[in-house]
Amino acid sequence: MQWVMASAAAAALPFPMIAQGEQAAAAPAAAGYGTDPKLLPPYKPGDFWPLTLTAEQKKTAAALADVILPDDAYGPAASKVGVVDMLDEWMSAPYPTQQHDRQTFLQGFSWLEAEANKRFGHPFHELAIEQQHAICDDICFAVAAKAEFRKPAQFFSRFRTVCASAYYATPEGWKAIGYIGNVALPSFDGPPPEVLEKLGITQTVGEMHDKGDRVTR
User: Fold this and answer.
1) Cα 212 from Cα 48, distance rounded (Å)
2) Which of 58, 123, 171, 191 has the smallest C-beta neighbourhood within 10 Å, fewest atoms?
């Protein structure tokens, strides 16, 4: 649950609308956690609300997440750091943004599997990486997508946003982008010179004196 809350900022970003008349499966019934959630105790998946993804849908989600965030020099693949579990928690939450995403993702997974079988005769997660890329290349940029791929491209865009939000809320994701927050420092000498130079500013805070007063120019 703490992980979901850490990723919730992504919900403020624009997300695609689902065409009228298309419905996903009914959302799991849940009351939610109200305005005063208890986030300190440990929780197991499904403790807050029933989860959505089936075993097959998790395979689809994992394969697509790994296309977007593969195992490379920056870090492990998305599926190796729990991104699919966070995605399942997110889209199962009984709130408007998450339920909108739930419908978008379930319909997107269905399209992805149908397209994989139509083109290559196998489920998406069983395809070679080149075959997965061939499908994703048609939907990875909504603005440039052909007419028949525009709606799947909207799904891909939103899925990518939520997956990235989950990935970069993990220690592995922090390492990938060089984030070193929450680390105690014996001293702080100000921003690195190369950062100041890039920003075109100069350091205006001096060193701390023994008496604790700060020199400011």
Assistant:
1) 48
2) 171
Bridge partners of 208, per DSSP, are 214
Determine contact, residues 39/5, Cβ cutoff 8 Å: yes
Provide the residue ranges of all domains of the chain, joining segments of one domain with +: 2-176
Cα torsion 15, 16, 21, 23 to 10°: value is -50
Chain segment 36-88, per-residue pLDDT in tens:
777 788 888 888 889 999 999 999 999 999 999 999 999 999 999 999 999 99
CA-CA distance, 126 to 146, in Å (whole number)?
25
How many angstroms separate the CA atoms of 180 and 45, rounded?
A: 28
Q: How many CB atoms lie within 10 A of CB 152?
A: 20
Q: For the stretch 170-191, what's the b/e string if a residue is b when 16 or more beta carbons lie within 10 angstroms of its beta carbon? A: bebbbebeeeeeeeeeeeeeee
Contacts of 82 (CB under 8 A, 6+ apart): 3, 166, 170
Amino acid at site 11: A
